[in-house]
From TrEMBL:
PANTHER family xrefs: BETA-GLUCURONIDASE
Entry-linked PROSITE patterns: GLYCOSYL_HYDROL_F2_1
Protein name: Beta-glucuronidase
Record GO biological process: carbohydrate metabolic process; glucuronoside catabolic process
Enzyme category, top tier: hydrolase
Family under the similarity heading: Belongs to the glycosyl hydrolase 2 family.
Residue intervals of the Glycoside hydrolase family 2 immunoglobulin-like beta-sandwich domain: 185-282
Length: 809
């Protein structure tokens, strides 16, 4: 399902804000009939937000059943009823939503974390107002995902029980929209990418429309981050090739834009509908015991998280979202898991844009009646049974997977699907329940690996389903729920456990949960559980084991921040396993993780097998001659994640500065006041003067896209071979037809800067006449940057990549 988008053919009206609110007076919604009357503003709630913690009222917080939201909505008068269709879009309603326009039911959706919509074209009219009522139920049963059971107490109060360890926040926790789009419209887009040996990106797309449309009426354009068109095609299904593609990399995202346009059958210039979708070119695969992104091994560092914050509950909050991401990046985290449900789509949009890797999870948590019983040493009833997890549960689980994949299939940040968290995978019936769901996930998306999170009771000897999955994901708490306070014993048990999985399956393993609770401010010298020190030591113990087990390819701490749960004697104001408090204050263990993960980042950009120092000058001379003959680089290329260019790889020999160089390079292509063509003229002249065939080759291609002609480049080649070429008497006059007056001033100025050390007043005056102060500084620093890069390529003998066609200087 495509996210709402406002553009030249579509419109979106946000319905976020303050809504009137009421609790149901009985479990029977038909008896209440909230759609038939006005809900008074006695109680009001914000949307998006969970309603539970908004009020100082325990009755509302612990309510089980339906609640009602209501507001008045005015349809924009500018909307046209003839050629437009009107929809209500709900990003989520937890856990079931029924939508009424005036007194008509227009939607009924079960599933609390994925979007749904209602076509209301025949009910509303432009310029008119209607009453919108939304009934939301938080009830969980064995007919829902996640499951639960409602208990009626002796006093008549209804109590919701469930197996998952987080509070059952409910309501309209995500945005609501009124949307319009054309009658003939784009209804869905699917993009699948691959990387060719040449370095080109292959982009396969499929467009679905509300009505049949001829292929000649569907126009496809791919735009790069500069807004330049790099590929075009026609038809609802096709394949495009992007030469010298920029890859989406962890920590170094690059997003292309797929623009889909439907043109009129009678007039191809008339635009009926358009939609723009961001996507990244990257590949995901599992090979042996490695998890590969773009063919390179990737090691996950990060967290299991929750959508949870004070007052808002699970309500989407962009301030908390961005703050969380910056805290993770500051610590060196590169990934997270959407435990234990799909997060707001804005979270994935942000991860796409910033190169953060996501393991995306369904809401299927709590499919295990043995966890609570096992913790307290009790005998558990069977999980897979007619009165427990049954065919109806499986059908709801099936729907949850379909809706998750449909929403998130195009996000490059999403690298794996988690079918379920901590199911009873060692119980009879587990395989019969899960195998069809795994097959469904692969059918819906054959491009991503599939996993589930295994809990400790289902050991490698007992588990019945792990062979169905691509990656082994383990949730383990040795030293907390067992071996409590004895980290030495816990370390031995953990290593034995991991080696058992490794020896049996040989698959890559991610520790998707490990952690100990810590009360912020509680300190202890010895290994005292609940202290900040114990939490840090617990994590360090797990890390020692990870480093000794070859197949471990990731570590996700449970949890990023403290979060709310139901009240119990083991939960004091929620779960305290966060390394941050609920309001994002760091505990001591944050420094443990920051030190480890930032060190891992530095290690990832260092060569695995650095060249040894020669023992003799003679050997060194022979080596250098061999390098020259074979056109080999003088230094080995480090195995750097996210670096398609050889120059970027060699920069990683200096881990202290590599990120700074990358940021400056990015700024040159995004943030300069200097025009793109003038930027390329500066770069071309600099690389020609400094004789860098490598940089010249790459920028010959880039400059052509920015409007630099072959004839202009030929002149710059000549300028590179002669000092003072452009300042020679009569030279620029002879080139008047090739360069504008502004371009001539630029070439004269940059040549003087390079030939330097000073620039004559006359040339300075010409430059200042044509360029702003900012542009002058940008030209000088740009020249200096490419002096450095040119010298790196010439001194280190950097080779051109296989996809680069050499361009002679």
């Amino acid at each position: 399902m495509l996210k709402p988008q406002a553009n030249s053919t579509r419109d979106v009206v946000s319905l976020d804000g303050i809504w009137n609110f009421a609790l149901a007076s009985s479990p029977d919604i038909e008896a209440d009939a909230p759609w038939s009357k006005l809900i008074p503003p006695k109680l009001q709630v914000p949307v998006p937000a969970s309603y539970n913690d908004i009020f100082a009222d325990e009755k509302i917080r612990s309510h089980v059943g339906w609640v009602y939201y209501q507001r008045q909505v005015t349809v924009p008068r500018r909307w046209s009823p003839e050629d437009q269709r009107y929809f209500l879009r709900f990003d989520a309603a937890t856990h079931r939503g029924r939508v009424y326009v005036n007194e008509k039911l227009v939607a009924d959706h079960a599933g609390g974390y994925t979007p749904f919509q209602a076509n209301i074209t025949d009910i509303i009219k432009p310029g008119e107002r209607f009453r919108l009522t939304v009934a939301v139920s938080n009830e969980l049963s064995w007919e829902t995902i996640p499951p639960g059971k409602i208990q009626t107490l002796a006093n008549g109060k209804r109590k919701q029980n469930y197996q998952h360890d987080f509070f059952n926040y409910s309501g309209l926790a995500r945005s609501v929209y009124l949307c319009s789009k054309p009658a003939v419209s784009i209804s869905d887009i699917t993009v699948v990418t691959d990387i060719l040996e040449s370095g080109a990106g292959k982009v396969q797309y499929k467009v679905e429309t509300s009505q049949p449309v001829g292929d000649d009426k569907v126009k496809i354009s791919v735009l790069d981050e500069e807004g330049l068109t790099v590929a075009q095609a026609n038809g609802t299904k096709n394949e495009l090739t992007i030469n010298s593609a920029h890859l989406w990399q962890p920590g170094a995202a690059y997003l292309y834009q797929l623009r889909v346009e439907i043109l009129s059958g009678s007039n191809k210039d008339e635009l009926l509908d358009t939609y723009e979708l961001f996507f990244g070119i990257r590949t995901i695969s599992v090979k042996g015991n490695q998890f590969l992104i773009n063919g390179k091994p990737f090691y996950f560092t990060g967290f299991g998280k929750h959508e949870d914050s004070p007052i808002r509950g699970k309500g989407f909050d962009p301030a908390y979202m961005i703050h969380d991401f910056h805290l993770m990046r500051w610590m060196g985290a590169n990934s997270f898991r959407t435990a234990h449900y799909p997060y707001a789509e804005e979270v994935l949009d942000y991860a796409d844009r910033h190169g953060i890797v996501v393991i995306n999870e369904t809401p299927a948590v709590g499919i295990n009646l043995g966890i609570i019983a096992g913790v307290f040493g009790l005998k558990a009833p069977p999980t897979f049974a007619p009165d427990a997890c049954n065919e109806t549960t499986q059908a709801a689980h099936d729907q949850a997977i379909r809706e998750l994949v449909a929403r998130d299939k195009n996000h490059p940040s999403v690298v794996m699907w988690t079918v379920t968290n901590e199911p009873a995978s060692a119980e009879p019936g587990a395989r019969e329940y899960l195998e069809p769901l795994v097959s469904l996930t692969r059918e819906l998306d054959p491009t991503r690996p599939v996993c589930f999170a295994n809990m400790g009771f289902a050991t490698f000897e007992k588990d019945l389903v792990t062979d169905l999955f691509d990656v082994i994901c383990l949730n383990r708490y040795y030293g907390w729920y067992s071996q409590t306070g004895d980290l030495e014993e816990a370390e031995q048990v953990l290593e034995k456990d991991l080696l058992g999985w490794q020896d049996k399956y040989g698959k890559p393993m991610i520790m998707t949960e490990y952690g100990a609770e810590a009360v912020a401010g509680l300190h202890a010298v010895c290994d005292v559980p609940w202290s900040e020190e114990y939490q840090g030591k617990f994590l360090e113990m797990f890390h020692r084991v990870f480093d000794r087990v070859e197949n471990v390819v990731g570590e996700h701490v449970w949890n990023f921040a403290d979060f709310q749960t139901t009240s119990s004697i083991t939960r004091v104001d929620g779960n305290k396993k966060g390394v941050f408090t609920r309001d994002r204050k760091p505990k001591g263990s944050v420094q443990v993780l920051k030190a480890r993960w930032t060190a891992k980042q530095a290690k990832d950009v260092l060569p695995r097998h650095p060249a040894s120092r020669p023992t003799s000058e003679t050997i060194r001379t022979v080596q250098m001659k061999f390098i020259k003959i074979m056109n080999m680089a003088r230094l080995p290329y480090p195995d750097v994640k996210g670096a398609p260019l050889n120059i970027s790889k060699l920069l990683a020999h200096s881990p202290a500065t590599v990120n700074h160089w990358s940021k400056i390079a990015g700024a040159h292509f995004k943030d300069l006041e200097l025009s793109s063509k003038n930027r390329e003229l500066v770069i071309l002249l600099s690389t020609a003067k400094f004789r860098s065939t490598y940089e010249w080759t790459h920028h010959s291609t880039v400059s052509a896209k920015e409007g630099v002609t072959d004839a202009q480049r030929e002149v710059i080649v000549q300028a590179g071979r002669q000092k003072g070429y452009f300042s020679a008497q009569g030279k620029l006059e002879s080139l008047a037809e090739l360069f504008t007056s502004k371009e001539k001033a630029l070439l004269l100025f940059i040549e003087a800067v390079i030939d330097g050390p000073e620039v004559a007043d006359e040339l300075w005056t010409k430059a200042k006449t044509e360029f702003s102060d900012r542009e002058v500084v940008e030209m000088i620093t740009l020249q200096g940057f490419y002096y450095t890069f040119s010298r790196l390529t010439t001194v280190l003998n950097v080779e051109l990549e296989p996809f680069a066609k050499p361009s002679k200087l």
